[in-house]
Design a protein that fits this description.
This protein is an alpha+beta fold. 35% of the residues lie in helices and 21% in strands. It binds one RNA strand through α8, β11, β15, α12 and β35.
RNA sequence: GCGAAGGUGGCGGAACAGGCAGACGCGCUGGCCUUAGGAGCCAGUGCCGCAAGGCGUGCGGGUUCGAGUCCCGCCCUUCGCACCA
């Protein structure tokens, strides 16, 4: 028998505007006794929302509805990150004003939110492109400028020669323009920067106090990239000081050359005349390279010598100065001391260019190797080694006869080995030990390989003895010719200092600190910390952004626009050029605020990340014309209690917002210094995307049989990717809602998997949600007549076993759902729990002796539990249940812990780790270890199993299981 | 290379304090209903086996009465960062 069919459209149309009109989503801003600031990252309004966006907004709406039912006064605003390139490009291409384009999209987004039943406090709506918002973005710039935290400096920018625009770093993909694919050029321009590096330590340190996903914190940590070490001053022969940064000052004695970045300011002065041309050519090639090329050829260690030399302050060694593009001007001091024995890059560079490599840190593993050349020792060494228990293998070496490959561990063994070799060495031969010991055994004695001088001496000697060494430039190059040695020639681990003059023998743990002290005492170095984080380049040579409020005056120079003259309005122009504001003379020409003379406005707009770095503050007082935000309200409502958005913002937006918050805190405007107390990053919804080599992205619905292109029939490349308009793999919510209703889409979106994980959208999956809602609807509608007249509350004392089981399930479900929503946001498992309860209820209502008070109570509870997920159908059913008060005014159901111990449970009994029986007993007894134990041991099946065995131990876990160990 | 997350049925996933592995949903199989099914309902569904039983959470060891979960050693996938000194 089927009742009235589930008609989502009729239901959803009925309730669509209800919640909004009743004002349930309006925050009571002055009452902060039980406040909760929930925030979704605001979107960039481009085109339309797709099902993938639902992951963020539907999730948020469900959480907020739950919080409201729990009695929180929720601030849940929404706005628009409305400045940006797509609007400007659309404007240039279609000749419409970016503002009109943007607002058309905003209207579309709002329509779609409404269709989803996703509600916000729309009285607080903001758009970053509106003058009453960007006025305060400019104000923020001025405040930073006042404190010296906004400055202008020369910098290289990415420029697309085809589009004639400057591109942000994120808009350069693989060295090419993201729009037209042209190769991006570097251009030197004066750029505005925010000095975020001044906050590096605090941004790092304060991560600790945030309730954020670990991986996001780790990403920020890496991005900020603190590294501790020392700055060491090397004197060039012509008297210049060259300061290098190193994290391994303990390797100083092994620094056999210096490398400067090609852009390093000292290069010109240092370069000797004979090298000038080569250096100039190399520098030019390096600057022409894009960042991509420079890193793509990462393994090719190119470089040229300057001809200059410096003195290693540790050992007085005269070492050459090179330039190479593996050293970046933007990190550290733009110069390094190369320690090829303990740095992989320096090792490769030194080997390639024939520079000496001197080990100065002992191997922590004590491993040493020795290759005994055929004929270099008298017979009998192999036998002697075997007697001495030294590991080796013998094998032919080319056509020269049999060689020995010896592997040694530990000092004592190495000493014994050297003695044996000396005893067997043929005159005119040599043999070396490398790794944990660096020694060359000649027929007249042992020469340690411990310095550049030793390198030269040993090499000369070897060349004398063996002509084949002839072309080798260093000892290490000679050794590197032998595969057997490869893994012991270089290591980057910490360890005891060797070959390091007075500091030789300093153990690994103390090495860095000891060396720094040594340097400081001699005035040639000091402890230093460097950061990977660089200052934030905020200039964009565009139109659709907040203009930088600076005037350039020929008399007064750089002059900030006075606060009372803000905002610097974007000029209204009929058509846009490709140069942004720089194309608009009316905008540029102005008067100097200081001297009143003719001056020019700065034509840069700010990066849109500046707009979004403070928007969460504006929501507390969105229409305040006198200040960016009401500090008193901000201090009461912020930090944001729960901030939800995509991981793609894990670094930039979140780092910038933290920086600006700390800055405003330092200005004394905010009492807190972290904007987002808890962060949740939802995963993306993926869907197959099809790529045709000629026609590019093809929408899945156009794909022909056998994954072929509809236009040319070519086989398509399929990959499952995050839904995106540009890849044409989006599922439009409008169609889903048309077919199944908004509740079905909401339910599937929340049920499909853990919200933090990426998951592929499935057509079958959404049908499952649709079927569940149908069953749920039929169940409730079918029971309405029976329970309409019921007034009594359920009384567990009168329940039979089946009723008690459902009663227990009901309370367990309320507990489960409440905990999931309050804790880890496991909405998928919350929905699953409600489905379980619904399934049990469906079975229960079929019973002839079903208790109507229980049915009524269960139905009412399920409707309330489901309301945050599927608000339309629940509001409808709640109404039909005869309730006057809307759900959002109804408290969230509670649960009674006592109910959890009602009825009977089944407990498994293990014997020697295997489940051999199950006992049924009252839940109350199962909670008692002794009662449970007795019940299990008394069970006939268990007794049968125990016959002939001695019980060794019985472990009873209350409510879980009994484990019996027998012999 | 470094950092992080992850590897569980045919699929998405569950098991969040070491306690019945596979909840919930999809798919599949059989049945009912139907002129019909991309509808609905009922039953089944990790693998091997007629069964009793055995085997099962990437692989190999270990701790424990008991391991998806803890420890040691590997393999693979995804995502960040990447010549950062």
């Amino acid at each position: 028998m089927k009742g009235e069919p589930y008609d989502p459209h009729a239901i959803e149309d009925r309730w669509r505007d209800f919640w909004h009109k009743r004002g349930f989503f309006k925050a009571r801003i002055h009452d902060t006794s039980r406040k909760f600031y929930y925030l979704n990252m605001f979107p960039y309004p481009s085109g339309k929302l797709h099902a993938g966006h639902g992951r963020n907004y539907i999730l948020g709406d469900a959480i907020v509805r739950f919080l409201i039912m729990r009695g929180w006064n929720v601030l849940n605003p929404m706005g628009w990150d409305a400045f940006g390139l797509p609007a400007e490009n659309a404007a240039i291409e279609q000749g419409i004003h970016p503002r009109d384009w943007t607002w058309a999209n905003i209207r579309e987004f709002k329509r779609q939110f409404r269709a989803w039943g996703v509600e916000y406090d729309w009285d607080r709506e903001i758009a970053t492109c509106e003058p009453d918002y960007y006025k305060w973005t400019q104000w923020l710039f001025l405040k930073l400028y006042e404190r010296g935290l906004a400055y202008r400096a020369q910098g290289k920018v990415n420029h697309c020669p085809h589009c004639e625009v400057v591109l942000a770093n994120e808009q350069v993909i693989g060295g090419r323009c993201w729009r037209c694919g042209a190769e991006v050029e570097k251009r030197e321009l004066a750029q505005w920067y925010f000095k975020i590096t001044a906050y590096a330590d605090r941004l790092l340190r304060d991560l600790e106090k945030l309730d954020w996903p670990e991986h996001v914190k780790r990403m920020q940590e890496n991005w900020i990239g603190r590294s501790e070490g020392a700055e060491v001053t090397f004197k060039a022969e012509d008297g210049q000081d060259i300061v290098v940064f190193t994290t391994r000052p303990d390797t100083l004695w092994g620094a056999t050359f210096l490398v400067l970045a090609p852009e390093h300011p000292l290069v010109d002065a240092l370069t000797h005349p004979a090298h000038r041309d080569a250096v100039a050519a190399y520098r030019e090639a390096a600057t022409a390279k894009t960042e991509m090329e420079r890193t793509a050829k990462a393994l090719d260690k190119t470089g040229v010598p300057t001809g200059a030399h410096a003195v290693n302050p540790a050992n007085g060694e005269r070492i050459p100065i090179w330039i190479a593009d593996y050293v970046m001007m933007t990190y550290g001091t733009g110069a390094i001391m190369a320690v090829p024995a303990h740095d992989e890059r320096d090792f490769a560079f030194a080997l390639k260019h024939g520079l000496p490599i001197i080990p100065v840190i002992a191997r922590p593993d004590g491993l040493a190797k020795s290759f005994v050349f055929p004929g270099s020792v008298r017979s009998g060494l192999a036998e002697a080694l075997a007697r001495a228990n030294i590991a080796f293998t013998a094998g032919p070496h080319r056509d020269r006869g049999e060689a020995l490959y010896v592997t040694l561990r530990g000092e004592a063994e190495i000493d014994r080995y050297i003695d044996l070799v000396r005893a067997h060495l043929q005159p005119g031969s040599w043999c070396e030990v490398v790794g944990a010991r660096w020694a060359f055994v000649f027929d007249d004695g042992v020469v340690p390989f411990d310095s550049v001088a030793a390198d030269r001496k040993i090499l000369a000697r070897c060349k004398e003895l063996e002509p084949k060494v002839g072309d080798k430039r260093t000892v290490m190059e000679m050794l590197a010719g032998l595969d057997f040695y490869r893994d012991v020639l270089f290591h980057a681990e910490h360890g005891t200092m060797i070959h390091s003059g007075p500091l030789t023998g300093t153990p690994g743990e103390a090495a860095v600190a000891t060396t720094i002290r040594w340097l400081e005492e001699r005035g040639v170095g000091k402890a230093a910390v460097h950061w990977r984080l660089r200052d934030w380049l905020v200039s964009r040579q565009r139109y659709w952004g907040a203009p930088i409020p600076i005037v350039h005056c020929p008399e007064c120079g750089e002059v900030p626009v006075p606060e009372e003259d803000l905002p610097v309005l974007l000029p209204d122009v009929p058509t846009l050029g490709k140069q942004g504001l720089a194309d608009i003379p009316e905008f540029i020409l102005t008067r100097c605020p200081r001297c009143g003379g003719e001056a020019r406005r700065d034509t840069d707009t700010m990066d849109t990340f500046v707009d979004s770095s403070w928007y969460f503050l504006r929501y507390v007082s969105p229409s305040d014309g006198k200040r960016p935000f009401d500090p008193e309200l901000a201090n009461r409502w912020l930090p944001v209690d729960l901030y939800v958005g995509g991981v793609e913002h894990a670094i930039l937006h979140l780092l910038y917002s933290r920086f600006i918050t700390k800055f405003l805190h330092d200005l004394g405007l905010l009492a807190f210094d972290e904007p987002f107390r808890r962060l949740f990053t939802q995963g993306m919804i993926t869907y197959p995307a099809y790529w045709c080599p000629t026609h590019h992205w093809i929408s899945p619905r156009e794909v022909r049989e056998g994954d072929r292109c509809p236009k040319c029939g070519a086989p398509l490349e399929v990959s499952v990717l995050a839904m995106s308009k540009s890849k044409k793999n989006v599922v439009p919510p409008d169609e889903l809602i048309e077919r199944y209703g908004a509740d079905t889409e909401r339910l599937y979106t929340l049920f499909m998997g853990p919200p933090e994980r990426d998951i592929e959208w499935s057509e079958e999956g959404i049908r499952g949600a649709w079927r569940f809602l149908n069953r749920f609807w039929q169940l409730v509608i079918g029971e309405l007549p029976r329970i309409a007249a019921v007034r009594r509350e359920p009384d567990p004392a009168r329940f039979d076993a089946a009723a008690l089981a459902l009663w227990r399930k009901l309370h367990a479900t309320v507990q489960k759902v409440t905990e999931e929503l309050e804790g880890r946001l496991g909405l998928n498992t919350a929905v699953a729990a409600i489905m379980e309860l619904t399934n049990e209820l469906s079975a229960y209502v079929e019973r002839s002796d079903a208790d109507l008070t229980l049915i009524r109570q269960t139905i009412r509870t399920v409707v309330l539990l489901l309301a945050p997920f599927v608000p339309f159908v629940c509001e409808e059913l709640w109404h039909r249940l005869g309730e006057e008060k809307p759900i959002l005014e109804t408290p969230w159901p509670g649960y009674d812990p006592a109910a959890l111990s009602e009825g009977e449970v089944e407990i498994p009994v293990q014997i020697n780790g295997r489940v051999r029986a199950r006992v049924r007993l009252p839940a109350r007894d199962a909670a008692d270890a002794e009662a449970l134990k007795a019940m299990a041991l008394g069970d006939p099946t268990v007794q049968e199993r125990l016959r002939g065995h001695e019980v060794d131990r019985v472990i009873a876990v209350p409510g879980k299981l009994v484990s019996i160990v027998v012999r």
